């Protein structure tokens, strides 16, 4: 599915990037701090696991929202009409949006790794899994791992905004689109934690063409 937003002016556009709201499973509403951080954006992209329509309704009060469906039961029940992947054309830039998981074995293995406290180890495999769903892109927004991260995979700006709702580790991302390029930054709603093995991500990425720009 494709959407086109037209010409990027000199002022540029700011896009809010969110994922994994899980309302009402993890929270009853979008955190006020998230709404404040997203105030003034021109567009919001949601990378799935929305769970309930109330989440999108709150976000739509701030800006137009484009979303893909995730793998949880709420998305299967309430958002079956949403695409699994989406390409948004913003001026000359192609931005892909996907949740990052496609089948039950992937979901089960990712769940076990996450429960063991090693969500950060999923950055590379889930990012590559999402990337394979698209053709040429300039940026890709994906979710699923609940771990905020920005990096680069074969020249594509990769953004995982983290989980918007939950007991901890809540985050989102902002992307600035200008005639000069794309820039993204993370906005933490909770103090960021270091992974159990803070050097694991570096070792995991070494030797491949995926590099970390920012994250924990």
Can you walk me through this structure?
The protein has 216 residues and is an alpha/beta fold. Helices cover 22% and strands 30% of the residues. It has a single domain (2-215), classed as Metallo-dependent phosphatases (Purple Acid Phosphatase, chain A, domain 2). The protein contains 6 helices and 12 strands. It has a 7-stranded mixed beta sheet with strand order 1-5-6-7-9-8-12, covered by helices on one side. A 5-stranded mixed beta sheet has the order 4-3-2-10-11, covered by helices on one side. Strand 5 (85-90) and strand 6 form a beta hairpin. The relative contact order is 0.19. The model is unreliable at 196-209 (pLDDT under 50).
Summarize the structure.
The protein has 216 residues and is α/β, with parallel strands linked by helices. It is 22% helix and 30% strand. The chain has a seven-stranded mixed beta sheet with strand order 1-5-6-7-9-8-12, with helices on one face.
CATH class: Alpha Beta
Q: Tell me the major beta sheet.
A: 7 strands, mixed
Q: How many domains make up the coordinates?
A: 1
Report the β-strand fraction as a percent range.
25-35%
* Overall pLDDT level: 80
What value does the Rg take, in angstroms? 16 Å
Quaternary status: single chain
Q: Which secondary-structure class do the elements indicate?
A: alpha/beta
Question: From the coordinates shown, what is the CATH architecture?
Answer: 4-Layer Sandwich
Instruction: Give the CATH H-level superfamily.
Output: Metallo-dependent phosphatases
How are helices and strands ordered from N to C? EEHEHEHEEHHEEEEEHE
CATH fold annotation: Purple Acid Phosphatase, chain A, domain 2
Query: Uncertain segments of ≥5 residues (pLDDT<50)?
Result: 196-209
Terminal CA distance = 32 Å
Within the largest sheet, what's the order of strands?
1-5-6-7-9-8-12
Number of helices: 6
């Amino acid at each position: 599915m494709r959407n086109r937003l037209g010409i990027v002016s000199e002022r540029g556009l700011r896009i809010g990037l969110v994922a994994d709201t899980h309302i009402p499973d993890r929270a009853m509403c979008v955190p006020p701090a998230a709404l404040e951080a997203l105030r003034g954006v021109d567009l919001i992209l949601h990378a799935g696991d929305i769970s309930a329509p109330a989440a999108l309704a709150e976000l739509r009060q701030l800006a137009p929202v484009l979303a893909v469906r995730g793998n949880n039961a709420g998305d299967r029940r309430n958002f079956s009409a949403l695409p699994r992947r989406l390409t948004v054309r913003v001026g000359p830039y192609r931005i892909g949006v996907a949740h990052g998981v496609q089948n039950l074995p992937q979901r089960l293995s990712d769940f076990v790794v996450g429960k063991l406290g090693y969500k950060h180890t999923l950055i590379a495999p889930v990012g590559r899994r999402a990337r394979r769903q698209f053709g040429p892109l300039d940026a890709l927004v994906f979710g699923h791992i609940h771990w905020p991260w920005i990096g680069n995979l074969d020249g594509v700006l990769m953004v995982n905004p983290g989980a918007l709702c939950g007991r901890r580790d809540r985050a989102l991302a902002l992307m600035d689109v200008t005639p000069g390029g794309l820039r993204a930054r993370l906005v933490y709603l909770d103090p960021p934690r270091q992974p159990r093995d803070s050097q694991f991500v570096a070792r995991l990425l070494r030797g491949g063409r995926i590099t970390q720009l920012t994250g924990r």
